[in-house]
Amino acid sequence: MGQRRGYHRQWGPREPGPPRPREWEVLLLLRQGLEDEEIARRLGITASTVRGHIYRLRDRLGANTRAELLRRIPWEQCPPGLQPPEAGDQGHL
């Protein structure tokens, strides 16, 4: 029998809360259409770690695909320091 959704064999039930800071960083780059390897390079982590973040987020939010994951993310909860500048704001740092 497989592992239950939302349950980690070592730490128990997973809480469905908002993404953690590193997960937000991965999500923002994923939202830009970047591949795992490019996200990993930009964040200084491995592509395997990127895939792990995405897998855990999909599991917590009950998303079957990456596209569905991006639709389910509560973007309004993204910490302001992590949000990319709006189009046109890039020159006004």
From TrEMBL:
**Residue ranges of every copy of the HTH luxR-type domain listed in the record:** 15-77
Disordered: annotated span: 1-22
Q: Name one GO biological process term.
A: regulation of DNA-templated transcription
Tell me which SUPFAM superfamilies the record gives. Answer: C-terminal effector domain of the bipartite response regulators (SSF46894)
Q: Enumerate the UniProt keywords alphabetically.
A: DNA-binding, Transcription, Transcription regulation
Which parts of the chain are coiled coil? Answer: none
- PROSITE patterns found in the cross-reference section: HTH_LUXR_2
Has keyword Metal-binding?
no
InterPro entries noted in UniProt:
Sig_transdc_resp-reg_C-effctor, Tscrpt_reg_LuxR_C, WH-like_DNA-bd_sf
Q: Which domain of life is it from?
A: Bacteria
Q: Name one GO molecular function term.
A: DNA binding
Protein name per its UniProtKB record: HTH luxR-type domain-containing protein
Gene source species: Thermogemmatispora aurantia
Provide the organism lineage as a comma list. Answer: Bacteria, Bacillati, Chloroflexota, Ktedonobacteria, Thermogemmatisporales
